Amino acid sequence: MISKTGYDHIVLSDRGAAIIAGTTMKIVELVPDHAVYGWSPEELHCQHPHLSMGQIHAALAYYWDHKVELEQDIQRRLELVDELEETASSASLAERLKTRRSD
């Protein structure tokens, strides 16, 4: 179920994630391009041509109005990626060791 917000072009998923309406792109997927690379709305549009300027401006407005919450979500996602990378590399190492023992 999708819920409307007070922002044109922004909806909330049933899990509460802010999504750019008409797309599958979450605000937390667009914001790092702006925050890390310093991309302007125009540059964001060049990098994500499927988004309209209205969608981009609405996403940035939503981000600035919910910055603390979204930054926490971004941090949680980065930690999850780190955890998954560690798990994957550990499994890979275990598989390599098993292969070496059988040689």
Structural write-up:
The structure is a single chain. The protein is mainly alpha-helical. The protein has a single domain (3-102), classed as Arc Repressor Mutant, subunit A, CATH 1.10.10.10. The protein is 65% helix and 8% strand. The protein has helices at residues 27-37, 41-47, 53-65, 67-102, and strands spanning 3-4, 10-12, 18-20. A hairpin with a 5-residue loop joins strand 1 and strand 2 (10-12). Helix 1 (27-37) crosses helix 3 (53-65), helix 1 (27-37) crosses helix 4 (67-102) and helix 2 packs across helix 3 (53-65). The termini are far apart.
Summarize this structure briefly.
The chain is mainly alpha-helical and 103 residues long.
- CATH homolog superfamily: Winged helix-like DNA-binding domain superfamily/Winged helix DNA-binding domain
How many separate domains make up the residues?
Answer: 1
Largest sheet at a glance?
Answer: 3 strands, antiparallel
Count of alpha/pi helices: 4
Quantity of strands, as a count = 3
Percent of residues in helices comes to 55-70%
Low-confidence stretches: none
Order of SSEs: EEEHHHH
Quickly give the structural class: mainly alpha
Indicate the overall shape. Answer: elongated
Strand content: 5-15%
CATH domain class name: Mainly Alpha
CATH topology: Arc Repressor Mutant, subunit A
Q: Give the end-to-end Cα distance, rounded to a whole number of Å.
A: 54 Å
Compute the average pLDDT. Answer: 87
Main β-sheet, spatial strand arrangement: 1-2-3
CATH architecture classification name = Orthogonal Bundle
Cα Rg: 19 Å
